[in-house]
Every structure is written in structure tokens, then in C-alpha cells.
Design a protein that fits this description.
The protein is α/β, with parallel strands linked by helices. Helix content is 24%, strand content 22%. Strand 5, helix 3 and strand 6 form a beta-alpha-beta unit.
Length: 118
């Protein structure tokens, strides 16, 4: 399903997970900096890439993309998305209370610049 999955690493002591992260999580500007570096190293074209966020903390990395979208955004992301003419989607919960959105799809991998499009 995914070529690569990026997530936080857990701290381990004596072969046992401690419940703490090994490094600070990638949020706000740190996530944007990571995405910029990742795209440069991998030859990805962020201007041709899609991304999906739900919080104002996603603004820094969404701003790097050519096709950002807000999914059930908080108030600040909704305002900025409207100003920037980004797509805004409001998805509702299903009858079981399970959300229909795919949390894992919050960020999509950028498009490689060396691939030809039709």
C-alpha cells in the first residue's frame, strides 16, 4: 500500500520500550523541514504533490505542496485554507462512530521529479 512509512521511534532501555519517544516528534516547522530535506534527497517535486492536514500545526508543511487540502480542519487551518484557496473537506463520522477518513493518509509522499506524467 505504501512505499515508505515514517513515524516516531520509541526509546528503548535494556530491550524494553520505556513509553517515551527517542526524539522529539516531527511537528510544525520541524515536519516542514524534514519534508523539504526528504524531497530534495529523493528527487521529489513538492509542487506536484498532494497533502492532507487537519490542524494549524500542518500549515508549514502543507504550504510546501502544490496540492494541499484541509480535512475537518481546526478554525485556524480553515481560515488559512480559505485564504489560500485550498480544498477544504468536511467528513462526518459513520454510524458506528468510526471516522471514514484514513488517518495514515495524513501526508502523502511527494511525486518524484524523474517520473514522466501522461
Amino acid at each position: 500500500l505504501f512505499d515508505e512509512v515514517v513515524g516516531s521511534s520509541m526509546h528503548v532501555r535494556d530491550g524494553v520500550l520505556t513509553g517515551y519517544l527517542a526524539k522529539p516528534p516531527l511537528v510544525d516547522e520541524a515536519r516542514a523541514a524534514w519534508l523539504q530535506r526528504y524531497s530534495e534527497e529523493g528527487g521529489y517535486d513538492l509542487a506536484a504533490s498532494y497533502g492532507y492536514g487537519d490542524s494549524h500545526s500542518d500549515l508549514p508543511w502543507l504550504s510546501l505542496l502544490g496540492k494541499p487540502s484541509a480535512i475537518n480542519p481546526d478554525a485556524e487551518l480553515a481560515r488559512e485554507s480559505h485564504k489560500r484557496n485550498w480544498n477544504i473537506y468536511r467528513w462526518k463520522s459513520g454510524g458506528s462512530g468510526v471516522r471514514r477518513d484514513v488517518i495514515a493518509a495524513r501526508t502523502t509522499l511527494p511525486t518524484r521529479t524523474d517520473e514522466k506524467s501522461d
